[in-house]
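Help wanted!
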Amino acid sequence: MRLCGELGIDPSSDPVLFCLAADLGSKVTGEWEREPFIKGWISIDPAINSVASMKAALPKLRKKLNADPVYFKKVYMHTFDLCKAPGARVLALETAIDLWTLYIPPALEARPSALSHIAPGAAPTSPATDEAPGFSADDLELWLEFQKSKGKAVSKDTWSLLIDFIRTIDAELKEYDEEAAWPSTIDDFVEYARAKKA
Amino acid sequence: MLYKGFKGIITDHLNVLAEERIVPAFPRASGTHTAAKLGGGQEAMEYALEGDRFLRAIKGVWDDHVRAMRSINHILQYLNRGYCLMNGLPVVLEVGRDLFLSQIVRSNKYPIHTHLIGTLLSLVQLERDGEAIQRSSIRDSIDVLLRLENSEAMGGGTVYATSFEPEFLRRSKDFYGQEAITMLERGDAPAYLRNVETRFAEEANRTASYLSSFTWKQLEALLIGSLLTPHLQAIMKMPGSGLAAMVEADRYDDLHRLYTLFLRVPDDAGKDALRIALRENVEAYGKAINDGATRVDQDAGPSAGGMDEDEKPDPKGKGKAKAPTAAASALSQALRWVQDVHDLKDKFDAILDQAFGGDQQIQASINEAFQSFINANQRAPEFLSLFIDEHLKKGTKAKSEEEIDVALEKTIVLFRFLSDKDKFERYYKIHLAKRLLYGRSASDDAERGMVAKLKVEMGFQFTQKLEGMFTDMRLSAESINSFRNYMSKNNATLPFDLSVNVLTASYWPQPVVAASTCTFGSSLSQATDLYQKYYDGRHTGRRLTWQANLGTADVRVRFKARSHDLNLSTQALVVLLLFEDVKDDETLSYNDIKSATGLADADLQRTLQSLACAKFRVLTKTPKGRDVNPTDVFSFNDAFTSPLARIKIMQVASSKVETPKERQETQEMVDEERRHQIEACIVRIMKNRKTMSHNDLISEVAHQLSSRFVPSMSNIKKRIESLIDREYLERTSYVGMYRYLA
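Answered by r_m:
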């Protein structure tokens, strides 16, 4: 927490903390092991040697998070493990909702966006483009609403595939292929969202 | 000179002949090609005669001409060779033929051509309308037309092919197009088909006897195109006489006609239409059968379910009185459903055989239809099993072995159509268990025969547990003998005969071997303890659980009037024995009985009902009533009388047909079982393949499980996800590919 204060991070609303957690190999919230911590900072920028220079590196990380799909997915997936209860397979719904609200809107707004639209079938790690994501902030609202209505904890599979879903889906959800390998939660969501939009 | 002179003479001669012999013979009505409506009867006959005369005249002129030309040809041999060939002119015979064509048939002076073609067509028309005509004269004229060849300049070909055939086909098309419409308006499909068949035969005969055989191909196509292709649906859907009516009345001849005619339609369009229509037809029948089953089901539903709890507000007794009949009717409903389906299958088998020559594609369509409606009935697996139960059970209608065998064989056929075979297995196991344990099986051979049949259909795995059940029964019978030896060796005696069926828990269906608690009285425990000792001595590591709900007991009970031998369930015996030490005027409360026997409420209530509320009331319940309540008090009914020495006290059984609640439970168990099976199947496949695409995996799973049930795609998908969550599988970086994690 002191580190947060010194680096000027608001832990409740700044996803950059999760970037650090992922990059610095933190497996439990707030705990940092020495070796991966140091190695991590070096990998972010070899020139870092003080708290001030750490702080200076943060804006770059924030930008990278929202613009680099591979990095986004890495941090996002690390967050799942970080935030679930120890030993659990799923992430509590409330936590998941908070995290989605934290992660997704800034990434949707960024240009290029880590969530920019890709053709169906393309690898989810395809580089970001300036194209606006097919998924909108309203869609996110629908998703959160849908999750609340189901009231179930979120599996890692759903957590992970949501990002792929956001990247491949078009604004009208027309291109969605029910036959494809999407988790059934996302099948259900598409049905839900189509009904709402109609 | 000579050549030209000869030509001129012939031309003049032919003109004279035309004027003298042909023109006077012109029939009245053939002046135009239309010659449309010829009046019937007398007029038609006259016309036929006139036409005939005309054709004869033509033929006569032709014959004379040919004869003359032949003579001239002989005379002018030299001319032929010396002049014609050298100058590249046609030889005499050819000249003669050409002149006949130009001067007679295509005469400029007289409308012979029009009359000739018109007459021919009109005569054909007359014959089509059913008048008798002289075929020979037509044949002759047609021959002439076939001999005459058009000049090179006109594109060659016989006059028949250029002048007659197209017009003939055009007329035929008009005629049959019109006929199709008029016949359809009459609304009689069999008559329509009969007519079509006749027309085919007539036209084939016509072309063979007086037209050119080359015409037949086109004419046939034309007939099909006019009479069949556009009207397939109209014929089959004809109200009151179409396909449905033919099937309903088993009109094999009509159906066969329909089939053979429809086969003529090109590109299999006729057969396909027939297949679709048949399918719809079968499904309509099937739906009626299903509707019949569910309708009575709804009637029976509430009162059957009422046995459990809903019945209390009803006026006393009324609900109970109704319940057995409702249960019975639900059973008969199930049996009727199967019987109806059998009958329907027989009906269509006969039709297929008699009318459609066992056509495999049609058979496939019919089977598809059966499959679809049988599986539309959610309860088909239960009904089928009940039907088999009814036939393998003792004491139902006396049926000969052959009859039973036929019925079972047919049931296997229906079983093939079933998609929820695992569900059937579940019901079959329950029904078989009841037959075996309550000794209700009519014949061991028949039972084994049925299992063998299922084995042939489904393979070893499917029947493994069923066979295990038989083995248990056999081993139990053997072990009871050795138990008796054991007793005599150890000088152990029991106050009664004990017979034990040892069931392997995994073979027998869950609801049957579900743990039920029961505290045996002292005399019974003595026996069970002894058997336990004997059993433990023979096997190690096995645990015996006593199932009082499955056994029966014979016991002699002394009442005031006389003694009766009672045959009752072990549970009932345990309850009855409690009253042994109770004085006549004393009572036991429900709770006393419950704590003494340790029976679960549902079991105890059923048992007490069978003892105190059913036909033979060996216990008296206060207050009286049909339902057993926890506040009730019971006493031994010493005043019990009955004319029978041996009395069978039936357990007030939950009806054989499942109540909606039980059905739901069964469905849940089936679903649970299926979840395991799907997961096992996914893991099996993935273990083998390591990585696999989503679609391949889904179709492989569906394929492998299809012999037992048809898993829905979403179910498979959910199982895959569950396996991913439990880290048996993972998604790869390729979209829609899974990897197996060892």
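OP: Thanks! One thing I noticed: Strands of chain B lie at 552-558, 563-569, 588-589, 619-622, 633-636, 646-648, 691-693, 729-731, 737-740.
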